[in-house]
Structure formats: structure tokens, C-alpha cells
Amino acid sequence: QEKADPQKTAFVLRKAWTLYSVTPLHGFRRARLRDYARLLGAFIAAEKQKGLAVEVGVELDIKVALSSHAELRGSELDQAALLVQLSSRSRASSRSSEDKPVWSGWFCSVFGDDLSENVPEHFTCLPLFLSHGAESYTSLVGSWFQKTFDCCFRRLAISPLNLSWMVAMWAGCKLDRAPSAVELVFSVPRLSQPLDISYAIHPEDAKALWDTVQKTPGEITQEEVDVFMDCLYAHFHRHFKIHLSAAKLVKVSTAVASAHCDGIVKILHSEYLPGVLMLLTELAISQIQ
Amino acid sequence: HLAASLPLPSERDHLRPRIDLVVFMIDIKSKYSLKNVETSLAYVDASFFLGKVCFLVTGVGRMNACSIEMNAIRKLGEAYCSPVLFCELELEGIRVTTAQRLLRMLRICAGHIPGVSALSFVSLMRSSHDD
């Protein structure tokens, strides 16, 4: 297995990515990336002409670049990741090398065998899509891919159950640098004014708790996640007499990554990138199936 | 009669009518509701578990807000030999259908339907396990 080159995967870190699940692409050919980039660029230009303008004011030419990233995958069975980058060049600018990135999105599959092993020929499996940038561009790019490859994009929501798996997994990760606090954000239902509760835990306390709960290193069970969360809830209840287990867990943040129930993640640490992507790929696949 | 948890206050024991059916409601969005039900189960007399108890899981219309693992609920139903019903209270049609279902179960548990008793629920559950 290729070890991820930190330079090549740097673009993934420290950005808020909006997640989607994508059904397999039909008739996609890696050799035609330049053609696809050209076609997508023409599509975007045409849509803007039609008045489905993305930005008002400055006239912008959108340049499209498609590239493959073989280092962003789990195993040889996974397809290499596909990166789509939109950059703008102001027509008013005289310097031809001034390309400003305005949007990026990438498709990937990390240990997505559950999906790819059951798929017929001519289909390419890249179930996880991550976008960063204006929603209007995401919509344009998504429409083009849906029309061209007969696939379907759906926002990937993350349930409180899955968020608690994430916080348990990530709080237990060993980090060399001083890690930031583990934070859980809850939203309290059925109140006239929405109320959010933020529960911050010292990262060493969280890791120490997880270490006492986890029995087999490298393996995590639902029972262990439940015990971990119950300890956190009990501690909070002792101090504040509030049952967090009755509230909705909406966001978790750790030094490794943070995730929001609306399907937005930020990955902060390159060492755990494959693990995080593997979990997200699994969620995307279960939303598809 | 609605109660937030068991046991029921003992002061009103003498005023209370006979209890024919206990429905434990679990909100899929609230882990707390599951814990509450698990604790309350300890206060139910064993004889009720012969068809006079059922679990009603609500909020299933929003699986994205799920805080409880479905396996845990299934195991609860198996452990207590009681049926598990699923519904979404926010949808009127399902709310009404579920209420009608519970009423039918209640009539049987109260002995209003000749020839059918609460024990029928238990034997119905057992046959699906043996498959």
C-alpha cells in the first residue's frame, strides 16, 4: 500500500468539506480527464450565459482542472481519487498566470469494497464526494456529473450515533503535538428558543477514559462507544443536572478531525487521514445502499 | 395513563384501575429515553411479560437523527419477550394507525375479545424466532 505523500494530500487538511454520497459513475474513463475538464468548463460557461449566474459584478472566466490522486485510496481495489478544481481568471487582469482557486471537490473511495465488488462492468465506484467552496458551483459541477455519468449525489448526513463513534475513535488517537480540547455540541429539542450546549473535555482526560474502556487496540465495539459516552453524560449530569443523552449530538471536535451532523467535516491531522476517509466512505456507502 | 418513568407513585395505588397493558416508549433521538425504559422495566411484575408489555419506538421517520443503535432495541424486545412496534408520531396517518393498533392490543389484554388472550402475543413472537 502506498504511503500518502504529505505534500500531495495537504490540500485535504484544515478545510471544511461538505459531504455527499455518490452512486457509481457509468462510462467514466480516466484517460479522458482533459476532455471532461473542457466539457465541464463549457457547461459552466453556458449556464452562466443562461443567467444562472454564479457571481454578479466582476466578469470571471472559470477554468476547470481534473486530476487523479492515486495516493488517496485505501487499497489497490479502490479507485484513485478524482479532484475537480475550479479557478477564476479575471478578464480585466492582464497577467495571464493569475489563477485564483474558487472551488474544489473530490471523489474518493477508501476501502469501499462493499460497494465495488457488487458493481457491473463500466461502472466506477467513488462513493464519497467532498466539496469546498460556493454551493452554486457544487450544484453546477454536480449537475454535470449527474448528466454525464448517470449518477446521483445526495448530501451525507451524520447521525448522533455515528458522531459518537467518531468522537470515541478520534479522542483515543495518540498525537505527538499537544492536542486541542475534545468538544461535543448538543442541540436541545422542543424549546421555544433553540439552545446549544457545548461540552469541552481536556484531551488527555478523554484519551485516558477511552484507554480504560477499549479492550482490544485497533478494534472498537458499539458497547465500548456506549460506555465512553455514558461516562461523559454521567459526569455532565453530576455537575449540571442535565441529561445530555436526551439532547441531540450535532457536532464533535477533536485534534484529529471535527464533524457536524449536516455532513461537514474538517480533517486536521494527516496521520489519521486514511482512517477518517475510511469511516466516511463507509457512511457514504450505507447511504447509497 | 401516562407516566415519565416507573415506579408509579404509591400514594395513588388504591385509586388506580387494573393495568392491562404497559407500553414503553423509546424515542430514537434520545439515548436517555432508552436508559429510562431500561431502568423502569425493573419495576414491572414478571407476569406482565406474558403479552402485556410492548415497546413503541418513535421518531423512526428521521433516521439521520438516530441516537440509539437498532440492535440494542431488538435485543431488548428479545430479552423481555415483548413485541417492538415502530412509528413516527409526527405523521398523523401513522399516529392514528399506531393508536388503533395499541387499542386492539389493549382490548385483547383486557380480555374483551373472546378466544384471544395476551398470551397469543407471546406465542406469535416465539414462532418468528424459531425460523
Question: Can you characterise this structure?
Answer:
The complex is a heterodimer of chains A (289) and B (131). Chain A has 289 residues and is of the alpha+beta class. Chain A has 2 domains: 6-155, no CATH class; 160-261, no CATH class. Chain A is 34% helix and 27% strand. Chain A has helices at residues 6-9, 33-49, 113-116, 135-149, 160-171, 203-213, 222-240, 273-288; strands spanning 16-22, 25-26, 60-69, 81-90, 100-108, 123-124, 128-133, 153-155, 182-188, 195-201, 248-253, 257-260, 264-267. In chain A, the strands form 2 sheets. In chain A, strands 1, 3, 4, 5, 7, 8, 9, 10, 11, 12 and 13 form an 11-stranded antiparallel beta sheet that branches. In chain A, a hairpin with a 6-residue loop joins strand 9 (182-188) and strand 10. In chain A, helix 5 (160-171) crosses helix 7. The longest helix of chain A has 19 residues, at 222-240. The mean pLDDT of chain A is 90. By secondary structure, chain B is α/β, with parallel strands linked by helices. Chain B has one domain: P-loop containing nucleotide triphosphate hydrolases (Rossmann fold, 3-Layer(aba) Sandwich), CATH 3.40.50.300. Chain B has helices spanning 31-41, 70-79, 92-109, 119-130; strands at 22-27, 53-58, 84-87. Chain B has a 3-stranded parallel beta sheet, with helices on both faces. The mean pLDDT of chain B is 89. At the A-B interface, helix 5 and helix 7 of A face helix 1 of B.
Brief synopsis:
The complex is a heterodimer of chains A (289) and B (131). With 289 residues, chain A is an alpha+beta fold.
Describe the protein's topology:
The complex is a heterodimer of chains A (289) and B (131).
Chain A: H1 6-9, E1 16-22, E2 25-26, H2 33-49, E3 60-69, E4 81-90, E5 100-108, H3 113-116, E6 123-124, E7 128-133, H4 135-149, E8 153-155, H5 160-171, E9 182-188, E10 195-201, H6 203-213, H7 222-240, E11 248-253, E12 257-260, E13 264-267, H8 273-288
Antiparallel strand pairs in A: 1-7, 1-8, 1-13, 2-6, 3-4, 4-5, 5-7, 9-10, 9-11, 11-12, 12-13
Chain B: E1 22-27, H1 31-41, E2 53-58, H2 70-79, E3 84-87, H3 92-109, H4 119-130
Parallel strand pairs in B: 1-2, 2-3
Keywords (chain A): Centromere, Chromosome, Nucleus
Main location (chain A): nucleus
Protein name (chain A): Centromere protein L
